[in-house]
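Q: I have 171 residues here and want to know how they pack in 3D. Can you give me a structure?
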Amino acid sequence: MPQLSYPEVFENIGQTKSTNEKKAILREHENRKYFKELLVYMFDPRIKFLYNKNTLPVYVPDDAPEGMNMTSIPHVLPRLGYFTEYSPLGDRSNNTKRNNLAISVLESVNSKESDLLALIMTNSKYPYSGLTEKLVRDTFPKLLGEVEKKSNKKEKEELQDEQETKESTTP
């Protein structure tokens, strides 16, 4: 039996009612190539993509039957880093190169996978019921990072420093 695509795995999670069954599905696939990395791109709050629904370049999804595409998510996932704030492509002004790469990535996988990648790249909500950051954190506790939260005291000190700086530079 052929292996399920990542969107199919997530659809199975959406069709499952029990949280324990959802966790079992995630654990069943945890050793697949780039599965955990995909979950990190989907749910790690530290990763911010540069695109939104309005700025993602227009692409034509591959209409080949599933499994007959040139490539799949495990082959293109390493390129997703190019579309984040910390892109190795550098300056945001180099949009042409980044957009061409995004089109190439999105058009090289089947339409279900390109839809999933587009949702990831635009920080959008996923259509898979029950597939949440909480579920991923509960299943793989050390997988996702935490966003550092500033304490109120630190925020107040920073605001005070900014005000003092503005006052000292104003003639």
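Q: Anything worth noting?
A: The helical segments are 6-15, 19-28, 35-43, 73-76, 95-107, 111-121, 133-139, 152-169. The chain is about 50% helix and 0% strand.
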